[in-house]
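Thread amino acids onto this structure.
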């Protein structure tokens, strides 16, 4: 199994809030889709992904699930 598949599998197996997992998948996908670019705009794209997924994340609910 390739390293990329290992990373995707480990993200899916995380015991985290679904919004966190979706955000990690989006960032990982962004990395893969921009691997061939010389100077991709990571900061702007990362901020866009983080802001979009942060709206769905409820840290209080996540901490209750872990406790």
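Threaded sequence (67 positions):
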């Amino acid at each position: 199994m390739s390293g990329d598949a290992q990373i995707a599998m480990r993200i899916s197996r995380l015991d985290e809030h679904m919004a966190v997992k979706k955000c990690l998948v989006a960032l990982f996908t962004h990395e893969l889709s921009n691997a061939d670019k010389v100077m991709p705009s990571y900061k702007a794209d990362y901020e866009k992904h983080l802001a979009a997924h942060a709206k769905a994340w409820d840290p209080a609910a996540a901490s209750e699930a872990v406790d």
